[in-house]
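REVIEWER CHECKLIST
Item 1: Sequence provided? yes
Item 2: Single chain? yes
Item 3: Sequence as submitted:
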Amino acid sequence: MSNLQKLAPYLGHGDGPRKRSSFEIIMATLDVIDRGCYRGTRIMYSVNTSWVPLLKILAFLSRKDLIEARENPRKSRTEYYITQKGRAVLKLYRDLIFALSFEMNDQ
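Item 4: Structure as written out by the authors:
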């Protein structure tokens, strides 16, 4: 179980399933790209979102220089790669989740 999954009960409202925030979806997208998923549809399925919201997220991440979109002329598709800035942001996020998981375990 990941640290984020351990924190889920503390982040939700009530007992039912919790809707993910835009921030969580953005960070999940960065994480999937960092783990080597470069194609849009693969990213979409891995993040568990639909196409139009994913395109908005990818555009946002690209504008913030957290990812880079590259055209693959041999395969006629766009591929997405995380930048150094994106890795730094993702590391900060992972460190925060890790630190919070220790705080929750202490209680």
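Item 5: Key structural point noted by reviewer: The chain has a mean pLDDT of 86.
Item 6: Recommendation: ____
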